[in-house]
Specification:
The complex is a heterodimer of chains A (277) and B (293). By secondary structure, chain A is mostly helical. Chain A has 14 helices and no strands. Chain A is globular. Chain B has a single domain, classed as Orthogonal Bundle (MetI-like fold), CATH 1.10.3720. The two termini of chain B are 45 Å apart. The mean pLDDT of chain B is 89. Classes of the chains: A mainly alpha (277), B mainly alpha (293).
């Protein structure tokens, strides 16, 4: 019974893994085919039908390099904002006694459940119209500048550090910034990796907001330019799916690679605490 | 000074960029959205200050006498009815199976999370390919393939989108359930086993009640995610087709508010949508949330 149960469990688990992974495999295969082959045979690599032309084709329509650079600036800006301001806020929330601390923490929790759909119109009016920041990197970054989940993860980790360490350093006359930089931060490096990873996937994958505020193709992150390519010009290329899938591989690869390299930081305990608060 | 700001006022200074960010990007825009929805609001050039009269509920009436808007809410209802239960059942099943697995845990975990960490725009491309008229899914189904094909079929477009989102987000919910499963005391399983409960009984008698807080979280987050639906109908069904069968409220907000220049109507849709989500969340919390005993 138990043995049969165990076999059944692995059958379910591996069937699940195939369902999750197959589309990614198919993405790569499809991006390498000279002619897309929707038959069952097309799901296996056929050396006679392999080419890199799709990558060249999609690059002629959407500038992949400029898309990647814009995605990189957008994501980099958010990461910088989150690491600098988020760490400061997380440290203050965990380590310092000040009026408004509990209210600020409650706010950070609340922000996570505010749906973006409500903010879409007023943010567009403010950022694109009033501040004139459409087609700028700043306008793209601003609504995502500090990731609240990361703030909560930082706080959670700082809370776990032994208080005596800090009391001792304070008696020795160390300032709070110095404590943060040379005592606290080195001790919470895993939290830093988790938070950076989590923050990275947000802006890199974000579509709606940069789509709303970038009309100039040279300013669009890759997710936006690929989406525009899918919805408008795909029909006019001789192998539209090959070219689309090539673009999809370029968009997906950085995150998937980063995630696989750092997967051990993406574990339930860290994120669970961040999400549950 | 100390009495006013607390023992370490430096904390306020450290938090001030974050507080400014929350006020600028969340608090003020929410208030502004409500204001916009009650006024005759239109886009103006930067610097111009046009007259924007108060119009009461006009924007709400305009929005909710529009068949397309009503249809988009019905569509998202269909979406939630398919997506939310499927998400809860599949993620709990896979998480508890994964929790007991000894071999290949890392491989399994990574493969479950990969769709979640990848951009929807990228994976939508593969699904378009898989579910196109002459795509792999129809090739395998042969004569059983639906006609018209999945994404251009009025009955099937929304269910395919719901299935896609379930698949795409499932890894995140598995992660939440895995965390929750660590908190279910092992002794409960042991005492259930000594009472003669089999694996299936144990699952319903120990696991399901043990992870109830996580279930509530999964319900809430999947409902909010579903209400936010935009990218998938925009790309998978070419802007909510066929015939508006897969439009979503957020897609309508984009089309009416930004493409057609009626941000006031779009803000009204957004506010009704959020109230709807809050009502559903309240009901979920009532029935699934922690019970006082």
């Amino acid at each position: 019974m138990t043995r049969r149960g165990a076999v059944l469990r692995y059958v379910v688990l591996f069937a699940g893994a195939i369902v999750f992974l197959f589309p990614f495999y198919y993405m790569v295969i499809g991006s390498l085919q000279k002619e897309t082959d929707p038959t069952l045979a097309g799901a296996f690599p056929n050396p006679a039908n392999l080419t890199l032309d799709n990558y060249v084709n999609v690059n002629e329509r959407i500038d992949l390099v400029s898309g990647l650079v814009n995605s990189g600036i957008f994501t980099g800006g958010v990461l910088l904002g989150t690491v600098v301001f988020g760490v400061l806020a997380g440290y203050a929330l965990a380590m310092l006694q000040w009026r408004g601390r509990n209210a600020t923490f409650a706010l950070a929790l609340l922000v996570q459940v505010i749906p973006f759909q409500l903010l879409q119109i007023p943010l567009y009016v403010l950022i694109a119209r009033d501040y004139g920041l459409s087609d700028t990197h700043l306008g793209m970054i601003l609504p995502f500048l500090i990731n609240s989940t990361a703030v909560i993860i930082f706080r959670q980790y700082f809370l776990q550090l032994p208080k005596e360490l800090f009391e001792a350093a304070r008696i020795d006359g160390a300032g709070e910034l110095r404590l943060l930089w040379s005592v606290a931060l080195p001790l919470v490096r895993p939290a830093l990796v988790t938070a950076v990873l989590l923050t990275f996937i947000g802006p890199w994958n974000e579509f709606l907001w940069p789509f709303l505020i970038t009309k100039d193709a040279s300013m669009q992150p890759l997710a936006v330019s690929l989406a525009n390519y899918i919805s408008t010009v795909a029909a006019s290329t001789d192998n539209p799916f090959g070219a689309i899938l090539a673009g999809a591989v370029v968009l997906a690869a950085p995150v998937v690679v980063l995630f696989i390299v750092f997967q051990r930081y993406f574990v339930s305990s860290d994120l669970g605490s961040g999400v549950k608060g | 000074m100390k009495r006013l700001l607390g023992r370490q006022p430096l904390g306020l200074l450290f938090s001030s960029p974050y507080l400014a960010f929350v006020i600028l990007v969340f608090a003020f825009p929410i208030v502004y959205a409500v204001w916009i929805s009650f006024h005759d609001f239109f886009f103006a050039a930067p610097g111009a200050e046009p007259d924007r009269p108060f119009v009461g509920l006009d924007n709400y009436v305009y929005a909710f006498t529009n068949d397309q808007v009503l249809r988009s809410f019905a569509n998202v209802g269909v979406f939630l009815v398919i997506n939310v239960p499927l998400t809860v059942v599949l993620s709990l099943l896979l998480a508890s199976a994964l929790n007991r697995a000894v071999h290949a845990r890392t491989f399994l975990r990574v493969s479950y999370y990969v769709p979640y960490v990848t951009a929807s725009v990228a994976v939508v491309a593969v699904w378009l390919f898989l579910f196109s008229g002459s795509g792999l899914v129809n090739t395998i189904l042969g004569p059983l393939a639906p006609d018209p094909s999945w994404l251009i079929n009025e009955q099937l477009a929304m269910p395919v989108i719901a299935l896609y989102v379930t698949w795409k987000q499932l890894g995140f919910y598995i992660l939440l359930y895995l965390a929750a499963l660590q908190n279910v005391p092992k002794e409960l399983y042991e005492s259930a086993a000594t009472d003669g409960a089999g694996r299936i009984r144990q699952f319903f008698a120990v696991t399901v009640p043990g992870v109830r807080p996580a279930t509530l979280l999964v319900l809430l987050i999947s409902t909010v995610t579903g209400a936010n639906l935009f990218t998938e109908p925009y790309l998978l069904t070419a802007g909510g087709g066929p015939n508006g069968a897969s439009t979503s409220p957020v897609l309508m907000m984009y089309q009416l508010g930004i493409q057609q220049g009626q941000p006031d109507v779009a803000a009204a849709i957004g506010i009704v949508l959020v109230i709807g989500v809050l009502v559903i969340a309240f009901i979920q919390n009532r029935f699934v949330g922690e019970r006082e005993s």
